[in-house]
Write a structure and sequence with these properties.
The protein has helices at about 65-85, 90-105, 105-115, 120-145, 170-185, 200-210, 225-230, 245-255, 280-290, 310-325, 345-360, 390-395, 410-415, 435-440, 475-480, and strands at about 30, 30-35, 35-40, 45-50, 55-60, 155, 160-165, 185-190, 215-220, 240, 260-265, 270-275, 305-310, 365, 380-385, 400-405, 425-430, 445-450, 470, 485. The protein has about 475 residues and is an alpha/beta fold. The structure holds NADPH dihydro-nicotinamide-adenine-dinucleotide phosphate (NDP).
Length: about 475
Amino acid sequence: MQGELAAQTEWDYAPAPESREIVTIPSEYGLFIDGEFAPAADGRQFPTLNPATEEPLAQVADAGDADVDRAVAAARTAYERVWGPMPGAERAKYLYRIARLLQERSREFAVLESLDNGKPIKESRDVDIPLAAAHFFYHAGWADKLEHAGFGPSPRPIGVAGQVIPWNFPLLMAAWKLAPALAAGNTCVLKPAETTPLTALLLAEICQQAGLPPGVLNVTTGAGATGAALVAHPGVDKIAFTGSTEVGKEIQRAVAGTGKRLTLELGGKAANIVFDDAPVEGAVEGIVNGIYFNQGHVCCAGSRLLVQESVADAVLGRLRDRLGTLRLGDPLDKNTDIGAINSRQQLDKIRELSDAGEAEGAERWSPPCRLPDRGYWFPPTVFTGVSQSHRIAREEIFGPVLSVLTFRTPDEAVAKANNTPYGLSAGVWTEKGSRILWMAQRLRAGVVWANTYNRFDPASPFGGYRESGFGREGGRHGLAAYLNA
Ligand code: NDP
């Protein structure tokens, strides 16, 4: 079902499918509570689909209030009796074990992630899974050094962490949340997204394999109501959330006045800014990586291209050529660059906003591209003639859709880049180091990449300002969110 984006190239690729057989998907998955898998108390389940084919992969337990209650109680007991009092050097051993098991079983994780999420296997294999393992390795290294991390002589864990994560990087977001929390001595109740629960459950299996004491990690799968029950639970000391700004605001309201600690990593509408002295080939790769990586389902995606007017035609011409070489289709094919959109609901949202772009007068372009008959697909799309008032310049589309604006001076670039309620990330492409520093000082974004884009490292803090949320994940800053100094 490989699409025909490659039709413009002179030769074609033979299919290079990764084997689906490497992973065993049971027909039913239970909740992971107190070290064991069990059905929901009321027996409810929901299906999880392969978005590339719309076929059901498995039935997954749908956690209700009673299950969340049991998970929080298990986490509390494990915190008080085992994990909280355990020396950091001992906790580190478990985290190292989990990291190594993730590496050992990485192919299995990559295939399962691509099946459940729709992302290309080369992304899950080369980005998501290695980075998830890296987060466990990195935080294992901190577990016995917290007294020397600049948080005072004896920083203490907070207690039970309730963690709600989205569907765009299912395993990686679980690792971002769990690794620092566990390293700092907290216990966790994790709520994965409804459409992508499977790798979090495989991670739970790995924790069993690593001998992690029961109750230290609990996974309560379900929909938004399960997340809301976890957020509202009085036995939770800290909430960490990644997802939409809308739900983030709801959570902030729910947590207000309870004394619970909170970190929110929300949406974005990042500017990727290309100056006239930037090497065009490199900048075009950065634009493609910025918005078409992971089908644009990336909170820090470079969804607004700001290109200096004098080079706009050259950059856009080269960008169109490059998009013509991208291959859309079977996520398990190692040649695939663009996989499936994660859900029908997300596809509808991308379509609605793209239609609004056209209706408001922007010009829409996609390379020639036949979409597979089944599944959820959207071609890589570029909008030119976009003005700052257009919805596609203001709202998070969370899909493979780029809005192009132009600028003449650095001041104008800064003003346009900052003209958004978000503040998560930005990119700057220029040959001049001094200009990079000048821009970085003025861009109101938590992360500014220079001559690169979408680079992540467990040692590097990530997070936003304003409607992109608050708190940092990764690095020493990320640990602070899980410690009482
Ligand atoms: P949500 O913010 O709804 O989902 C994120 C997580 O929160 C999921 O686990 C979700 O469960 C859960 N959740 C939903 N409602 C509540 C609630 N009231 N209390 C606690 N937890 C809740 O994102 P969507 O999946 O609905 O995506 C909508 C839009 O959000 C996207 O189009 C995109 O623009 C943006 N988004 C941004 C992300 C980011 O990283 N910045 C990530 C994901 C989405 P469930 O999956 O079952 O709904």
